Amino acid sequence: MNRTSPKPLRGYLMLIAIVFGAIFLGALGALVSFVLTENRARNANDVQARAFAIAEAGLEYYRWHLAHYPSDLQNGTGAAGPYSMTYNDPEGGALGTIELTIGGNTSCNQITSVDITSKGTTAGSPAYTKTIFARYARPSVAEYSYILNDSVWAGSDRVILGPYHSNGGIRMDGTANSPVTSSLSTWSCTSSFGCSPTQTKNGVWGAGTNQNLWSYPTPQVDFAGISADFGTLKTTAQASGVYYPRYSTGTATTSSSYWNGYHLTFNTNGTVTVKRVSATTQLQVSPVNSAEWTTDRALLATEAAYETKTIPSTCGLIFVEDNVWIDGTVPSKITLVAANVVSGGTIRPNIYLRDNLQYSVTTGAAGLTAIAANDVLIAPNAPTNMTLNGVFIAQNGAFGRNLYLNSSRSDCHSTYEPKGTLTILGTTVSNKRTGTKWMNGCGSGDDAGFQNRVDSYDRNLSTNPPPFTPSVSTDYEFVDWREQ
Hints:
Elements: H1 10-68, E1 83-89, E2 93-107, E3 110-122, E4 125-137, E5 146-148, E6 152-154, E7 158-161, E8 164-166, E9 170-172, E10 175-176, E11 180-182, E12 186-189, E13 199-202, E14 204-205, E15 214-215, H2 223-226, H3 230-240, E16 242-244, E17 261-266, E18 271-286, E19 295-310, E20 317-320, E21 323-330, E22 333-338, E23 351-359, E24 367-372, E25 376-378, E26 386-394, E27 399-400, E28 403-404, E29 419-430, E30 437-443, E31 446-456, H4 459-463, E32 477-483
Parallel strand pairs: 5-8, 5-29, 6-9, 7-10, 7-31, 8-11, 9-14, 11-15, 16-20, 17-21, 20-22, 21-23, 22-24, 23-25, 24-26, 25-27, 26-29, 29-31
Antiparallel strand pairs: 1-2, 2-3, 3-4, 4-32, 12-13, 17-18, 18-19, 18-28, 30-31
């Protein structure tokens, strides 16, 4: 009888061993590759972190240098950069190198800010570098949306983007998406702020949103410190910028000739068209600053062409020793000052915002700072929907728009009231209480002034404002910082 012998299994076992061995070796190889890759990545991250720290050290070094030598942009060498230096560890020797590129921003022959670019490289790994850019300057008022030296009521229609500060109390019923700060712990809210009878309120209170951003008390903003030095600005404008002497006459505010001045229209080609104002129209008002007169002369009546002036590209400073009406498209970085130095402060001109003010470009190359010795006021015949770009500073007076009344003062003026939407891109600085809307100003529950208001600070101006924009601190600091 025939019998079948079993087939040997050794071939199969060997095949299985080979297959599983290959899988194991593949997995082991992948794991080793992963570990090596992760190790290289970690090493690279460590090197880049050290390069970043070295670059930061370069910024800090030049900040120290400028604190001791504020006008030296050449690292003490007297020659153009970039400037290379070794970064040493006192115990471990050279850790890498710093390469600094320094640039000064100037206007009217004065340094306004310093740009520092620092590149850090680690020793032994020159392929890995980090570069940081920073702008070194004194922080200006342009970092805020509003700075006030008086108590204020922000209504429910307000939308505010950017820090909002008052040295007085704040009733905040609007939408604020940035810090809202008051220098007071408590204040007396009167009927003019919607409290009847008078009540003691927290430094910031109201029905506004984002109340987690409210803070009080906080340090005051020193209005004396941010006050413009008009004498110096006049001298600088006469030497390097644009200057216009007083055209009005007399010292009595009751005289119509006191309220004449200049009408400036900015043009996109770098010029300003200037007209001399020889007559204005008197209108009945409730003034935004209750301490002032109950009439105003913000409405132009008679003006005549005077000249078209090219604004110097190296000194965008215009000093007018009189009242000024402004409008147009701002072509570059310009600071306009309306102040009277000759009178010793007894004559305080106003700036009137007659029409829209916008920039020729929105990249930050154009900007406006308008400083009035007294008020910055929106004219009665301003557009229904108005756009204002700039930093507006009422040094001793108020920013706002008066309530225009009919001749009998029994109702609002139907020609000039009400308005639509006011949009401000920039900063408002006001010594007195501001106001661009008048609750029940037209009677029967109808409001006067602008029915909707949108305020947003200008990020471009906050780091690179027009020349002579007032500072909020005497200390220099990095106002802009970014990795490149």
